Amino acid sequence: MPTVYDYDVKQTDGEMKSLRDFEGRPMIIVNTASKCGFTPQFKGLQELYNAHNNEGLEVLGFPSDQFNNQEFDTMDETMQFCQRNYGVSFWMFDKINVKGDEADPLFTFLTNQQKGIISSAIKWNFTKFLVDRNGQVVERYAPTTDPKKIEKDLKKIL
């Protein structure tokens, strides 16, 4: 059975990282944007990370510019913005496509595992996926879902 551990993703420095490095750790995987109305969710994601990282939680952010060009042009700008404004210390990866023919294979996998209400396609920034310790996608959350509302489900898999 395929898992998120079957995928490699590009880090902000251009190097590839295997998600197998996170094996055994629950994850929240989210597509992000720095100039979106939902951008303040970085704060809630960081709070979840701070509260539960000692229990194994990893948060993986994937900037995307596919929704009204709401991401900076360079990863340096993105990283500075996230760290300066929200204290982001969880994993952030290189900018990717999360929908369409050029979608990153990880996001194709995620959306096939947990479809949205109308379709599997990601509709906007800050769609969140909860992944258990076995690399299985157990829940998908809408962009409007406040990260604090994920905590109840998260505690079940910690």
Q: CATH fold name, please?
A: Glutaredoxin
- Category from helices, strands and their pairing: alpha/beta
CATH superfamily: Glutaredoxin
Number of strands: 7
CATH class: Alpha Beta
Number of helices: 4
Shape: globular
Share of residues in strands: 15-25%
First-last Cα distance: 22 Å
Give the number of domains.
1
Query: Helix share of residues?
Result: 25-40%
Q: How is the biggest beta sheet arranged?
A: 5 strands, mixed
What is the C-alpha radius of gyration, as a whole number of Å? 14 Å
For the record, the CATH architecture stands as 3-Layer(aba) Sandwich
| Mean pLDDT across all amino acids | 94
- Read across the widest sheet, the strand sequence of neighbours is 5-4-3-6-7
The ordered string of helix (H) and strand (E) elements is EEEHEHEHEEH
Low-confidence stretches: none
Structure commentary:
By secondary structure, the chain is of the alpha/beta class. It has a single domain, classed as Glutaredoxin, CATH 3.40.30. 25% of the residues lie in helices and 18% in strands. It is built from four helices and seven strands, in the order βββαβαβαββα. Strand 4, helix 2 (75-86) and strand 5 (91-92) form a beta-alpha-beta unit. The longest helix is centred in the first third of the chain and has 12 residues, at 41-52. The model has no long low-confidence stretch (mean pLDDT 94).
